Amino acid sequence: MSRLVVFGCSNTHGQGLLDPKKEVWGVLLANLLKKEFVNNGKQGASNKYIAHAINEFVFKPDDLVIIAWSYLNRSCVLRGRLDNQSEFVESIVLDNISASLAYMNDDYSVKYFKHFYSDFDSKFTNAVFMDFSIDLLISKGIEFKQFFIDPQETPNLRHKDTNTFSFSYKFFFDRYPKAADLIHMGPTGNKVLAKACYNEVTGNFNLNKDILFPKKTII
Hints:
Elements: E1 3-8, H1 10-13, H2 20-23, H3 25-33, E2 36-41, H4 47-56, E3 64-68, E4 75-78, E5 94-97, H5 99-103, H6 107-115, H7 119-140, E6 143-147, H8 169-173, H9 187-201, H10 209-212
Parallel strand pairs: 1-2, 1-3, 3-6
Antiparallel strand pairs: 4-5
């Protein structure tokens, strides 16, 4: 059986869901596509980490890869290679850096935003990591799709429109109930996101009209 391999942050990992191995959008999409599911989502992942995970992953020729890009104000300090190819990777040695962690007085994040961060640098380096990832997949001949977390979180990368879904994660996050943690998207939103991905993976773009342009907002 061919595989669906996804990369992303906690939204891809399934954080907040009561049963992420059954409820997260990636596994629902894999079920629709009748593919084996490999979840490389990582809580707090930056686009730098996602690029590193893609670079380290051992792909098979018939894999379908979907990248769910993360927030631009995240980064990380990598301290080793990724040796674990299993689902829901938790054993990675790195230091996450983000604005939310800085707000919670995380030492690494506070120092990063005080001494090193700028919006321009963030947009540039995120674009480099994203373009590197797409170039790598193209060079390996791996089929892939990508989508961004928010239209405002999309840097000016070369591959901005390469195999990109017509929607962002935010579209669904803003319209559907939250998960049990009241932070992440709940099961209904994950289910609709999976269906929207399925429609575009299979070329049925017209079927997304009712999803992406509903007659009334669903709450």
